[in-house]
Release factor glutamine methyltransferase
Amino acid sequence: MRKITLLKQARERLFQAGIEDAAFEANLLLCWACGCTRMELLQRDIIPDGSVEKFQMAIQRRSAREPVAFIIGEQGFWTLDLHVSPETLIPRGDSETLLEALLHHRPDRQAVRSVLDLGTGTGCLLLAALTEYPQAWGLGVDVAPGAAALARRNARRNGLSERTAFVAGDWATAIRGQFDVVLSNPPYIEHADMAHLMPDVVEYEPHRALDGGDDGLVAYRILCRSLPHLLSETGCAVLELGVGQEKAVTALAEAAGLKVLECRKDLGGVGRALVLAFS
């Protein structure tokens, strides 16, 4: 089938399904179906039948608002390529703000020796941090066994298996010990707002990783109570925040005896990464 016809049909179907960047996503999925780069795709006119069938199935799934990352099975984050699955949230660029904040406040790449990631999901935050701190080892914790298994797989993919461990367990009870760095992207969507999320999110990504309770702060209360016991004396924590949560989470942290070093904004101007340490 001719590429130009195939892409035109796909763009129209995606646009009708409410996909804003239909042209870009159609090209991305065709590259995936053909197993080629965008440059290689430009040089092709005819798409073989096997790739056409794979592409059309992908377009059908995307038209049902399944995220592209779940269709192709992977997502880039920081300098990593990561496997993804419906067991976890898809890593997002906003979360890279946590790593930028961490590197600013802990610039000595040799000094950080231990990193804890609470609610590790794909392992994206932990694995990215370990690529920046070569002397560190890391522990990732997630309540879902499937998420811990996926993070373990991502550690293998990125050559970090020997410096990581992943366990399934509850944040409040699973961990003992102190760490130089604690990272977390907890569930922070207010329960009443869950129904208003994009269908790509609410219909496909795990609600346990999104729903932060009635006020969106349930996980932060647990984190702020736990951090004084988990941080080393000179350690720092970096927590991801939702829109408008800086003041409330700051109050929880200060009540637990922690000091806010910074609330770093993401590219959209949202206060996204709250950096905490001992007063």
In short: The mean pLDDT is 94.
